[in-house]
Specification:
The structure is a single chain. The chain is of the alpha/beta class and 492 residues long. The chain has 2 domains: 3-234 and 438-446, Aldehyde Dehydrogenase, Chain A, domain 1, CATH 3.40.605.10; 239-426, Aldehyde Dehydrogenase, Chain A, domain 2 (3-Layer(aba) Sandwich), CATH 3.40.309.10. The chain is 40% helix and 16% strand. The chain has helices spanning 3-15, 28-39, 46-62, 64-75, 79-105, 142-153, 167-175, 193-199, 213-224, 248-260, 277-295, 311-320, 371-379, 394-402, 439-444, 471-482; strands spanning 108-109, 120-127, 130-134, 157-161, 186-188, 206-210, 230-233, 239-242, 272-275, 325-328, 332-333, 338-339, 342-345, 362-367, 386-390, 408-411, 432-433, 446-453. The protein has a 7-stranded mixed sheet, sandwiched between helices. Strand 4 (157-161), helix 7 and strand 5 (186-188) form a beta-alpha-beta unit. Helix 4 runs antiparallel to helix 7 and helix 10 (248-260) packs across helix 11. The protein starts with a helix and ends in a 10-residue tail after the last helix. The relative contact order is 0.14.
């Protein structure tokens, strides 16, 4: 389905009409069941949250082969890539949540002024309620379960919307995952854009969406009807600056692995390289060497190279091969949905390959004369989800870091920051809003409720704030409000 058609269908959320939607809400009963469960308080106790996280852990352990086979079926993902990027990372998130949940849930004491020194003031982390997680197809397990871990840990009920494009994983999520979670607190909705459109007409307490910026704008518009808070994890064109002062082969190995991992269908993959023409001439043979080393002389026969998700994306990518000049690769096979690891040179900024996120195994190289020119090129475009800089000179890497903005940054490597659960992941500007991973996912799905508990006694203390007012009382109250004690005090 063309992106324009997908967007058109989702735009009907805003217009309030969907073809085939008669006004009967097919999701009303499901959402009522989840809301009743949430309102009953079932999801709030730590014991319940722990039991659901443990169920999620068992789902991964007991179905590991099924999940790996399904990822191979949908995307021809090599076992190595599927295991480390989908299953292992999810397991790490679950383990972290289980080990820290009770600490995360604790009320957070806050500093008080003198007026409130005898009171109890704190922040309570509360679940939002019934939440919606919409996941994409490129990492259909990771990008569904990692947000789910945080939603469960925070005590929410959840509606899961896996991508219909990764058909095998959609079926596993719908048929197998529910066996491990409480049926009244979690639900899965299947289908494509039309079903998603109808689903988004309903009121949710939080929406977590991963996908393209264009569809993200539409989802955000749908959320605005109910003033629903939202996290958008979007994409964009991630720059990769390669300095003259570098080891070409080392850079080529790292860039090639991250660019061609999952056949380039990764939102944080380096989308284009900026370097001088001199560095390009050194980088090209190094990139060719890396591709041959990784995938052999005939990459199409390699068991370690994934395939494009479907015909529509294949033909879109094949069209981009006409941009600039093919320096490496360029072969394709529609029967296998195969696009060779490809490097393009002589690419212009105005070429189509530079106007959209590539999301495939194609790497354009554009020439710049200096790091300053590279920074200027990056800054005049939308803020990317990730940005990379390679140089033996740490001052160069830090200069790129200091003078640009992006969701995440990698110096002398690719997206290994995705493996660090103690670091937030998310976009900025056009590449998204909000953050998650580790405790940040718990925080994303938790509302921070400010609370003050006062004693019903000691009314004499409050007299200074009551009318009739006087300058003396005003000065005294202002002094109490502006000053704090150096030690905690509470009568509750």
């Amino acid at each position: 389905m063309p992106l324009s058609e997908l967007s058109s269908m989702l735009e009907s959320v805003i217009l309030g009409s969907v073809k085939g939607f008669s006004g009967v809400n097919p999701y009303a009963d499901t959402l009522k069941r989840l809301r009743d469960a949430f309102n009953s308080g079932r999801t709030r106790p730590a014991e319940f949250r722990i039991s659901q996280l443990q169920g999620l852990s068992r789902f991964l352990k007991e179905n590991r082969k099924l999940l790996l086979d399904t990822l191979a079926q949908d995307l021809n993902k090599p076992t190595f890539e599927a295991d480390i990027s989908e299953i292992v990372l999810c397991e790490a998130e679950i383990k972290l949540a289980l080990n820290n949940l009770r600490t995360w849930m604790k009320d957070e004491q806050v500093e008080k002024n003198l007026v409130t020194q005898l009171d109890s003031a704190f922040i309570r982390k509360e679940p939002y309620g019934v939440t919606l997680i919409i996941a994409p197809w490129n990492y259909p397990l990771n990008l569904l379960l990692v947000p789910l871990v945080g939603a469960i840990a925070a005590g929410n009920c959840v509606v899961l919307k896996p991508s219909e494009m990764s058909k095998g994983m959609e079926k596993v999520i719908a048929e197998v995952l529910p066996q491990y979670l409480h049926k009244n607190c979690f639900a899965t909705v299947l289908g494509g854009p039309q079903e998603a459109t109808i689903l988004l007409k309903n009121k949710f307490d939080y929406i977590f969406f991963t996908g393209s910026p264009r569809v993200g704008q539409i989802v955000m518009s749908a959320a605005s009807k109910y003033l629903t808070p939202i996290t958008l994890e979007l994409g964009g064109k991630n720059p990769c600056y390669v300095d003259d002062n570098c080891d070409p082969q080392s850079v080529a190995n790292r860039v090639a692995w991250f660019r061609f991992f999952n056949a380039g269908q990764t939102c944080v993959a380096p989308d284009y390289v900026l370097c001088s023409r001199e560095t390009q001439e050194k980088l090209l043979p190094a990139l060719q060497s890396a591709v041959t080393q990784f995938y052999g002389k005939e990459p199409q026969n390699s068991p370690d190279l994934a395939r494009i998700i479907n015909d529509r994306h294949f033909h879109r990518l094949r069209g981009l091969l006409d941009n600039g000049r093919v320096a490496i690769g360029g072969q394709s096979d529609v029967q296998e949905l195969y696009i060779a690891p490809t490097v393009l040179v002589d690419v212009k900024e105005t070429d189509p390959v530079m106007q959209e996120e590539i999301f495939g195994p194609i790497l354009p190289i554009l020439n710049v004369e200096s790091v300053d020119e590279a920074i200027a090129f990056i800054r005049k475009r939308e803020k990317p989800l990730a940005l990379y800089a390679f140089s033996k000179d740490s001052k160069v890497v830090n200069k790129v870091l200091d003078q640009t903005s992006s969701g995440n940054f990698g110096g002398n490597d690719g997206f290994m920051f995705m493996t660090i659960t103690s670091m937030p992941f998310g976009g900025v500007g056009h590449s998204g809003m909000g953050e998650y991973h580790g405790k940040f996912t718990f925080d994303t799905f938790s509302y921070r409720r400010g609370c003050l508990l006062r004693s019903p006694r000691l009314e004499m203390i409050n007299k200074m704030r009551y009318p009739p007012y006087s300058p003396g009382r005003q000065r005294l109250l202002v002094w109490f409000l502006e000053h704090k004690l150096g030690f905690p005090c509470s009568i509750l």
